[in-house]
Each structure stands twice: as C-alpha cells, then as structure tokens.
Specification:
The chain is mainly beta. It has six helices and 36 strands. The two termini are about 40 Å apart. The structure holds CU-O-CU linkage and copper (II) ion (2 copies).
Length: about 550
C-alpha cells in the first residue's frame, strides 16, 4: 500500500499550525459574540473562515436532537420499471415529502420520490439508464447526473427546465426561451459507458440550485463494473453510501434557507450576509441528524459524498485506530484508484467523493468511534458515530493494486487555459464575467486533452461537467504569478470532476474532453456562488 499521504501529512504541519491558530482565535471571538454557540464557522456577516469553509452560519431556532440517537438511514435502491437488452428504465417523481429529522417536528422536504436523499440508482457500466423525472413540485427543476458523461441534451443544462405538472406562472420566460423546456416530465438518457464510480444526481435549475438542493433534491447513482467486481472489497451491506451535508431549522422544523425570494420565482440568490455560502448548525448523514451505525469489527466501504451547499469537512476518526490508518482511500470522484492511499484525515469539499475503507477490526468490540469534522469545535465537529457491536468474519481485503490507472502527463495536453475565480461587487465571476448561458468561454476539440490553470481569491470547489480530470499541481500565487508545482496534495488522487481551490491558490488540472460534442457548464460548486453567477460554458467541438 502506498503511504505517501503520511509524508504529505507531515509536510502540512506548518500550515496546520496556522490553521489551528486561526481556528482558536475564531472560536474565542464567536464565544464572546454569541454566548459560546455550538461550534459553527462564522457568526454571520459573511466573513469566510481561513482554511475551513466559506460562508456564514445560520443558527437553528428549533430544538435540535441528541447526537447519535438516530440510526443511519440507507437510501433504498430504486428498481427499474423495466429493462431490455441495452437499457434499464426508471421513474422518479419529484414531490414534497415530510421527514422526521427533529424530535416531535416534521420537516417538509422536496425529494426524489418524496425522500431525502432520493433513492439510490445502481447501474452497470455500458448499460444505458433512462430516468423519467416527473415534476410535482411548485417550481421548475433540472436534473444533473454529477460525474456522468452525458450527451448535452440530457446533462441537465441549467436552463433546460422541467416545468411543474401543475403549471408555472413564475419568471424565467427568458431562460425558458433559451433552454429546452419540458412540460411536467422529462426522460433523461444516460449512456454511462464509464468506469465504476460514485455519482450523484441533484437539482441544477438556473439561479436556484442552492435552495432546491438544500430542500432535498439529491441522491446517489452508483455505477458498477467488472473491474470493481473482481476486487475483494467489502460488498453488500458493508458497502454504504454516506451523503453528508449541513442544515439549519426554523421553529416549525422547516429547513431554513436565506433566499432573497423565498418562493424561488424570480429573484435568485441569498441575502447579503450569506453571499459567501450558507452553513448550517446540524450535520445530516443520509438525511438524519448526527446518526449512528452499528458495525461489526470488520472492513466497511463508505462512499463519502459532501453534498453540502458550502461547508467543507476535514474528516477524522475519534478515537483514531490504535494501529493502521483511519481511512484507506480506494476511489475518487469518478473512479477507483490505481493504488489505495492511506489517510488519517480527509478534506472533502462540496460535491467531492472519497471512496474509503474503514477497518473496524483495529478497535475492541464495544468501542464507539465518532466521525468528526476537525475544522470546527463543538456540535458541528460531530458528523456521525459507529458502534463496534460484535465480531464477525471478514473475507474482504484492500489489494495493493486496484484498477488500471493511466496518469495523464503534461505532455499530453495541446491547449492550456487560465480561469480566475473571483468576487466582483455582489457577484461571483470567472475571468471577470458572470454567467451568461449564451457565451462560450472555451472550445475544446472532442477527444482533446487540455491543462486548465485555475486560480482564486477565495475558496472555490470547481467542477467541470462531462470532462474527467487529474490534478497536476497546486500552489500559492505570489504577486499574481502562479506556481502550481507538481504536487497535487494528499486529497487529489485519481480521476476527479471537482477540485477544491483554496484562497490565493492556483491549481492545474489536466482534463480529457471525450464523450460528446456540445455545450456544457463548468462552475463553482459552492451552490451560493454558483447561483450568483460563478459559472461558464465550454463547447466541445
Ligand atoms: Cu454537481 Cu453542475 O453540478
Ligand atoms: Cu456535474
Ligand atoms: Cu465559489
């Protein structure tokens, strides 16, 4: 097994010291300003937190549950309504539902089949999936399958609205005219000729993705293949997807989101204090607040997805295992790794996925192991808890070689492009421009390999549709001159679709634009930034 991350972790020490210093100072100022609240990131006013998350914290009004008192729910796997030689057909209705998240209160969610997270779709590489989405919500929606290589008409372009079955009298006549609008329902066709990976589907409505995902429109789509089947990884009940996000609750139990227009009709965006991002004060895993999971003293595979609008997590195990690494990473956003990578902690930004194995045999039976977020103190430092309840046989293993992995060398790239993610007045921009669905900012050739150099003033999880990429290097920008070096850092192994670019950092990625011709978006996956214009188009020609 490759233990490179240990070296990386050591090298991070100086930065960590700075982080800890910053965090302590912040906790102190929070303590005095807010009476020692329960450990969020910032107390409003829109300031961002160094090296933690970008955004402002909303405090719940409703009473919050006791941590670790609710069992972890696992979203049901959706059955196809029919299958033929090439294709599995699914049907999903987007509708309001009621979730029991808080003691004694119901939370209205908007969910795929009325649940949050939505049902998990599991398909096999090369088998086409057709998902018919019917919109019984009061607002237009768009479905995007994040991480999939999908033809442009089915990728969930932000203006390709599915209007409510009940009709829509709201705004966006202009957007509707620009996009391909469907009345009431749309069939999304996914070829999915790509390696096994943890994909997720979520809403992508132009200007309103933040509030609509916050309301519950997100679910897993797992792609499996023969290469994955051949590995002795934990399977079945020990292969568990974990959708992690944060939320805040109003007095009546409703999700609290600071939309400028709470009806989500015309005016996009959030109130000024939350422009940097919306942070909640409750962690949800698979829709449950600070849940627990009973495990045997064996290996488990967890597919970690950060589905939060803005929060970044620095995940660790408390207590750490007496021996061996806390996490063995086996996969990244869009596929399994060539070799496993050991981590004591994992920094995961919005939309990123880490496929990891935790070996609970390192702990004595009876141990309670908490998955924690080391960026913050207090209640929000807790994510969920594992109870190691009994012994069991374990035939699983993490082999030292996983799948064929082809590193993309710099020399493979034919074009280099630069993108600067910045804030200008009350908008977020890319190369100085806010999103315009009609403007194309890059025209890669079909099949081309390109280097994209991304720099930012603040923290931005940058996501490309269609193109999968590898991270070449990341470094600080000094006096406007970037030096990305050739160290992608410990958290950027493998094939990715989202990369976390920290403030004043430059990151170089190498992307392959294969799949389909047509127009796709790339954007910041901090959903408040995305809704406030931090998005652009590329067209594969
Ligand atoms: Cu997960 Cu364009 O988004
Ligand atoms: Cu995407
Ligand atoms: Cu951003």
């Amino acid at each position: 097994m490759r233990r490179r991350s240990d070296a990386w972790d050591m090298r991070l020490t100086r930065r960590e010291v700075l982080r800890l210093a910053g965090g302590a100072a912040l906790a102190l100022s929070l303590g005095s300003a807010c009476g020692g609240g329960n450990g969020g990131n910032s107390s409003g006013g829109g300031q961002s937190v160094p090296d933690g998350s970008t955004g402002a914290l909303q405090r719940s009004v409703a009473p919050l549950p006791e941590p670790f008192s609710i069992p972890l729910p696992i979203p049901p796997v959706l059955r196809p309504v029919r299958s033929d030689a090439t294709t599995d057909y699914y049907e999903i209705t987007q509708r309001p539902g009621r979730a029991a998240i808080l003691p004694g209160l119901a939370t209205e969610i908007w969910g795929y089949n009325g649940s949050f997270p939505g049902p998990t779709i599991e398909t096999r590489r090369g088998r086409q999936a057709v998902v018919r989405h019917r919109n019984e919500l009061p607002v237009p929606t768009v479905v995007h399958l994040h991480g999939a290589k999908t033809p442009p008409a089915h990728d969930g372009y932000p203006t390709d609205l599915v209007l409510p079955v009940g009709g829509w009298a709201g705004g966006h006549g202009d957007h509707a005219a620009m996009g391909h609008t469907s009345q009431g329902a749309k069939e999304y066709v996914y070829p999915l000729d790509q390696p096994a990976a943890t994909l997720w589907y979520h809403d992508h409505r132009m200007d309103f993705t933040g509030p609509q995902v916050y309301q519950g429109l997100a679910g897993f789509h797992l792609v499996r293949d023969a290469a994955e089947d051949a590995l002795p990884l934990p399977k079945g009940e020990r292969d568990i997807p974990l959708l992690i996000c944060d939320r805040s609750f109003a007095a009546d139990g409703a999700f609290m989101y600071p939309a400028i227009d709470p009806a989500l009709r015309d005016k996009p965006g959030v109130t000024k204090d939350f422009m940097n991002g919306v942070l909640g004060d409750v962690n949800l895993v698979n829709g449950a607040a600070w849940p627990f999971l009973e495990v045997t003293n064996t290996r488990y595979r967890f597919r970690l997805l950060n589905a939060a609008n803005a929060r970044r997590y620095r995940l660790a195990l408390d207590p750490p295992p007496p021996e061996g690494p806390a996490f063995v990473q086996i996969g990244a956003d869009v596929g399994l790794l060539g070799q496993p990578v050991a981590h004591e902690r994992i920094e995961i930004g919005p939309a990123e996925r880490f496929d990891v194995v935790i070996d609970f045999s390192a702990y004595p039976v009876g141990t309670r192991v908490t998955l924690v977020n080391r960026y913050v103190e207090g209640a929000m430092s807790r994510v969920m808890r594992f109870h190691v309840v009994r012994e069991a046989r374990d035939d699983s293993a993490v082999p030292s070689r996983l799948v064929e992995f082809e590193p993309l060398p710099r020399s493979a790239a034919t074009v280099t492009r630069e993108f600067r993610f910045a804030q200008e007045d009350d908008r977020w921009t890319i190369n100085g421009k806010p999103f315009d669905p009609q403007r194309i900012d890059a025209r890669p050739q079909l099949g081309a390999t390109e280097i994209w150099r991304i720099s930012s003033e603040q923290d931005h999880p940058v996501h490309l549709h269609l193109a999968h990429f590898q991270v070449l290097g990341r470094g600080r920008r000094i006096l406007g001159i970037g030096d990305s070096g050739d160290d992608p850092g410990p958290y950027n192994a493998g094939w990715k679709d989202t990369v976390y670019v920290s403030s004043s950092e430059q990151v170089e990625i190498i992307a392959r634009f294969d799949g389909y011709r047509g127009k796709y978006v790339f954007h910041c996956h901090n959903l408040e930034h995305e809704d406030m214009a931090m998005m652009a188009n590329f067209e594969v020609v």
